[in-house]
Amino acid sequence: MITIGNIRFTQYPLVLAPMEDITDRAFRLICKQFGADLVFTEFVSSEGLIRDADKSLNKMVLDERERPLGIQIFGHDQRSMVEAARYAAKFEPDLIDINFGCPVKKVVKKGGGAAALKDPERMIALTRAIVEATDIPVSVKTRLGWDEESKNIDKIAEPLQDTGIAALTIHGRTRAQFYKGRADWTLIRSIKDNPNIEIPIIGNGDIDSVERAARHISDYRTDAIMIGRAVVGNPWIFKQIRHYLRHGTLLPQPSLQERIDVFCNHLQKAIEIKGEKKATIEIRKFYSGYFKGIPRFKPFKIRLMKAKSEKEVHTILNELMNT
User: Fold this and answer.
1) Distance in angstroms (rounded) separating the CA atoms of residues 323 and 319
2) Which CATH number characterizes residue 314's domain?
């Protein structure tokens, strides 16, 4: 049994990574439907929260069907981050997660995200302040280090644990790598094997298939795995991994009809939350994932990318099904 904060998992946890413009409420609900054990919101700007920015506030509106769920916050200013954590706590998530891993330039240049890895003392102080500011369990998501020459997560892990965090997620790349190259989990395993580390360690990076998920679980012995980009338009990966862990066999890939059904369910949820116009536009980023490998899909995708209503989307997908 794995325990993260107040959450007890009776099976090996499969976690949905927080992804900007991807893991909104509609998609989180779809991933929970397919077996995600823990999900996270898109990352929420601390500065946006304390200014009551609608975009930041909307990201934290939760649905009880999503639980257990964490709200991830990011920023660089300790006062703002503490206030954001307190604000997030009002939404009663199961976890508040601190983003110390985002490599995006506009975040890093202000000292947020992975920039914290260049100043471990500030990183530790900020984490401690947030842990002390709220009764909600706090977790941290970060990377191996700033670049290849300054990998330091093995030196930071114990001090982070000492702040009182409930779990540590490590993406097996440096900030300099962004999302390129192969994720290196060897340092993640060394932290997991450290006898002084008692909190759960969650591994993240390159979990893009059922077989790789099983292999990483076996080889690196993390307490959970977090899946990011491979889930986009592919929520059934959670069900496939769980089946493989239990039975050692691969489930067949979803049929075209199954893909269409899940996509339409996703779109319907998005419409209920955001309205038809916005949902129809924002769902476009998921077409490639949902229909990857489908023959002759390209001309249909071109039309779908121009669709502006639910009815139009359904019409095009019905034509696809009948080709």
Assistant:
1) 6
2) 1.10.1200.80
Strands 7-9 and 39-40: unpaired
Question: What is the reported pLDDT for 50?
Answer: 66
**What is the pLDDT at residue 222?**
97
Evaluated on CA atoms 11, 16, 18, 23, the torsion sign reads negative
Same domain for 177 and 231?
A: yes
Burial class (CB in 10 A: 0-12, 13-18, 19+), 61: exposed
C-alpha angle 215-256-316 in degrees, rounded to nearest 5: 135
Amino acid residing at 18: P
Model pTM? 0.95
pLDDT value of residue 323 = 83
The stretches in the chain having pLDDT less than 50 are none
One domain, residues 208 and 269: no
Q: Which long-range contacts (CB under 8 A, 24 or more apart) does 151-159 make?
A: 151/187, 152/117, 152/120, 153/117, 153/187, 153/191, 154/187, 154/190, 154/191, 154/194, 155/120, 156/117, 156/120, 156/123, 156/124, 157/191, 157/194, 157/197, 158/194, 158/196, 158/197, 159/120, 159/124
Q: DSSP 3-state assignment of 139?
A: strand
Q: Which of 227, 247, 267 is the last residue of a domain?
A: 247
Considering the domain architecture, whether residues 131 and 168 belong to the same structural domain is answered as yes
- Tokens at residue 302, please? 């071109």
Torsion, Cα 306 311 317 323, to 10 degrees, reads -100
Q: How many domains does the chain have?
A: 2
Same domain? For 271 and 190 the reply is no
The whole domain housing 55 covers 2-247
Domain harbouring 41, CATH code = 3.20.20.70
Q: Are 286 and 241 members of one domain? A: no
Catalytic center residues: 102
**What values do phi and psi take at 311, rounded to 5?**
-60, -45
